[in-house]
Amino acid sequence: MSTNTLPTQERTDDEPTWRGPFPEYDRFGEPTGCRFVECRGCGCEVIAGHEQDATHRDGCPL
Ligand SMILES: [Zn+2]
After folding, report:
1. pLDDT tens across 2-45, in order?
2. What separation in Å is there between the alpha carbon of 46 and the centre of ligand 1?
3. Residue 13 Cα, ligand 1 centroid: separation in angstroms?
4. Could you give the C-alpha distances from 54 to 7, 23, 29, 35, 42, in angstroms and in order?
5. pLDDT in tens, 45-62
6. Cβ-defined contacts of 21-24 (< 8 Å, 24+)
7. pLDDT value at position 39?
8. Which terminus in the chain has less CB density within 10 A, N or C?
9. Which residues are CB-contacts of 16 (< 8 A; sequence separation ≥ 6)?
10. What is the Å distance from ligand 1's center to 6 Cα?
11. Of 58, 30, 54, whose CA–CA distance to 19 is shortest?
């Protein structure tokens, strides 16, 4: 009898979809206090925590 309550994982690869987070800098080179992450598949960037709102480029597998 399994005590594992986690749902079955579909992904076998353990690499995260997103690289980062990286600090965001404004045009003066000052940190804005925001952080962003970058998609491994297409390189699109989105504010950390808003990954679900990212617009992936055509052909991105992620
Ligand atoms: Zn992508």
Report:
1. 566 656 655 556 778 999 999 999 999 999 999 999 999 999 99
2. 10
3. 16
4. 25, 17, 24, 14, 11
5. 999 999 999 999 999 998
6. 21/48
7. 96
8. N
9. 40
10. 26
11. 54
